Q: What sequence folds into this?
């Protein structure tokens, strides 16, 4: 019988001993994005629902999307910023597994849309929760994605 260590670990990780955090946003016209990108577009190509035009009728639902590669929740590969950096295809999946530390400042961001996270904020988080582990993924919760105006332009453009 094969070792079931991986399945036992998966079962343990799915238990109430752990909390899973979804950092994604639904991809849509409302997805947060940099104002320089064209808006997300979605075109239905095929559908199975009654009333679907004959030339689109198929046994499945299928959409074509047009979206900038840096749109919404995503991972920026080093190559995005530096010509000699690694592309996403050169980064091994295991390199994306890290302890997660969420610095929650959504209330401060609601009170001040120009809030800037500081070193002092990180030190205060560590005072409350302990030292941020080496190799951790540190996420800043702002809730800016819930704003009505996701382009978040101000008088400076």
A:
């Amino acid at each position: 019988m094969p070792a079931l260590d991986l399945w036992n670990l998966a079962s343990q990780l799915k238990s109430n001993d752990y909390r899973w955090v979804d950092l994604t946003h639904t991809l849509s016209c409302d997805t947060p994005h940099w104002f320089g990108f064209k808006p997300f577009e979605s075109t239905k190509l095929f559908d199975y629902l009654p009333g679907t035009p004959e030339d689109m009728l198929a046994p499945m639902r299928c959409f074509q999307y047009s979206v900038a590669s840096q749109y919404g929740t995503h991972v920026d590969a080093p190559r995005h910023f530096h010509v000699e950096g690694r592309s996403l295809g050169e980064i091994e999946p295991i390199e994306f597994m890290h302890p997660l530390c969420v610095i929650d400042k959504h209330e401060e961001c609601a009170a001040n849309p120009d809030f800037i996270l500081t070193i002092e904020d990180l030190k205060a988080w560590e005072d409350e929760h302990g030292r941020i582990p080496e190799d951790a993924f540190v996420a800043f919760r702002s809730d800016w994605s819930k704003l009505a105006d996701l382009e978040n332009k101000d008088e400076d453009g």
About this structure: The mean pLDDT is 86.
